[in-house]
Amino acid sequence: MTSQSSLGTSLRTRSVASGAALQIDLGDQFLNYDVADGLKERVKKLLGEQLADGHRTFLLNLEKVGLIDSCGVGLLIAAHHQVVAEGGVLAIVGACPFVMKVLRMMRLDKFLALFPDQERAVRALVDTV
Predict the structure, then answer these.
(1) Where in the chain are the domains?
(2) What is the pTM of this model?
């Protein structure tokens, strides 16, 4: 963790794996319409800035998220598309069993890179980049 910045109460970034990846921590318990609608634009802007600065490996930490709805899923898909379109990779890390169940039920585990924790994501993504 070489740098850390706060972008409001529900979004935090930090460098991981000696700067090889940028982790985005979502701090809200709910990733539903009330939260995701406003958060989606902030995530899009943050990813755009980081992609422009040359970052290509991102970890989206859902450790604190306990509930997700279709708007939250839309946020994850939009973030994934944005990063992949620029030649990067986005991994979802730390999702609780309920969130993982929702993502698997929607078959997004075939589409999104899902990891139980930061350490495994870093090993899988950073060590292969």
Answers:
(1) 4-125
(2) 0.89
Nearest to 126 by CA among 87, 75, 91: 91
d(CA 91, CA 79): 10
Tell me if 20 sits within 8 A of 129, measured CB to CB.
Answer: yes
What are the DSSP calls for 78-99, one per residue? HHHHHHHHTT-EEEEE---HHH
3-state secondary structure of 86: coil
75 versus 5: the higher-pLDDT residue is 75
Reply yes or no on whether the pLDDT at 7 is more than 60. Answer: no
Q: Are 64 and 96 in contact (CB under 8 A)?
A: no
Topology of domain 4-125, CATH: Transcription Regulator spoIIAA (3.30.750)
CA distance 5 to 97: 28
